[in-house]
Design goal:
CATH superfamily of one domain: NAD(P)-binding Rossmann-like Domain
Strand order of the largest sheet: 4-3-2-1-5-6-8-12
Low-confidence stretches: 303-309
Oligomer: single chain
Number of strands: 14
CATH architecture of one domain: 3-Layer(aba) Sandwich
Largest sheet: 8 strands, mixed
Distance between the termini: 40 Å
Bound molecules: NADP nicotinamide-adenine-dinucleotide phosphate
CATH class of one domain: Alpha Beta
Shape: globular
């Protein structure tokens, strides 16, 4: 049985991915900054600042999926927070790289998370593809450094894949739960002018892309992970309200209020362009949820929404 080690495996994507990988027949372990053991999974510990990583974590693994990173939308982007956002992705990658090198250990593949933020907080008609340059803003630079540290694994002869992910739609996603709550109380509204695009992906499709990245030896380099049906923020909110059978009439939240509330981070929600999924589909990946209505219906088709969260 092959083993997959997941960093940040206790997060939103990691939790789903662990389940799908186990179902697929992999032995799954997680590498965590917390000493708490994950239920039913072998959990190894690492401390990125102190450069500590449990040796067994890398000794026993065939693949590594690198999801770890301080949450981008959780706190205001102070200088200190920005550094943590970068270091938790880049220095963590370097720690794994050095551990592999020192132990003469190789992998069948190293798969790293990245984000569509690579292309920058910009609203335009352009549809970004994987060969486009990274943007100069904070997230663009973060993703560039994050991917650069992943690319170093090539030096060890390891196949390296980077998954530039759009907003993940999942039942446990805090941002989605917040939007739903507002819509349920009749105060859901689009953000800013609402014309910014919002690349998204259903959690099930994202998990299948990660599994494909592990299994498909032809996959290499960056891949956009966003469904083809990309809508503007306004359309997205309207579809969400319709799926919930709720009215959508509240005026847009003005950009200046969001900027006051969130500072620079507001750009992430106030701006956005489309990204192409042509590369991943050309690699024979088929989206189970290419359409937004179907994706939302699937997520809502369970009892969780009926429990007035
Ligand atoms: N969710 C999205 O919509 C989305 C979109 C694009 C890209 N991504 C990227 O995909 C990755 C996984 O996303 P997610 O939504 O699952 O994130 P998440 O729920 O915030 O989980 C990330 C995990 O990273 C670990 N972590 C947190 N702070 C850390 C730090 N300072 N240093 C090292 N590890 C830390 C934690 O695991 P332990 O406590 O076990 O260490 C945490 O559970 C992230 O890198 C994220 O930026 C996510």
């Amino acid at each position: 049985m092959e083993t997959v080690l997941i960093t940040g495996g206790s997060g939103l994507i990691g939790k789903h991915l662990c389940i799908r990988l186990k179902e697929r027949g992999f032995n799954v372990c997680i590498l965590s900054t917390s000493k708490q053991k994950a239920e039913g999974l072998t959990t190894y510990f690492w401390d990125i600042n102190k450069k500590i990583i449990e040796k067994k974590a890398i000794e026993n693994t065939d693949y590594i999926i690198h999801l770890a990173g301080a949450n981008i939308g959780e706190k205001r982007w102070t200088t200190k927070r920005k550094q943590l956002i970068i270091d938790s992705r880049v220095k963590s990658g370097e720690l794994i790289f050095n551990a592999l090198k020192e132990n003469n250990k190789t992998l069948k593949a190293f798969v790293s998370a990245s984000a569509v933020g690579y292309y920058g907080a910009v609203t335009s008609d352009k549809i970004f593809i994987e060969t486009d340059q990274a943007a100069n803003d904070f997230l663009g630079e973060t993703c560039r450094l994050w991917e650069q540290s992943a690319d170093r694994f090539n030096e060890l002869g390891i196949r390296t894949v980077k998954i530039r992910t759009g907003v993940v739609l999942a039942q446990q996603d805090r941002a989605l739960i917040k939007m739903i709550t507002q819509i349920k109380f009749g105060i859901g509204s689009a953000l800013g002018n609402g014309k910014q695009y919002l690349p998204w992906i259903h959690i099930e499709d994202l998990c299948q892309i990660y599994i494909k990245a592990i299994e498909d030896k032809q996959m290499n380099g960056p891949y956009n992970a966003a469904a083809p049906d990309i809508r503007t923020n306004s359309e997205f909110t309207r579809v969400l309200a319709r799926t919930l059978n709720k009215p959508f009439w509240f005026p847009n939240i003005p950009a200046f209020i969001l900027k006051l509330l969130f500072g620079e981070m507001a750009d992430v929600i106030l701006k956005g362009s489309r990204v192409s999924c042509a590369k991943i589909t050309a690699a024979n990946f088929t989206f189970k949820f290419p359409n937004l209505e179907n994706a939302l219906n699937d997520l809502f088709n369970t009892s969780w929404l009926n429990t007035d969260k």
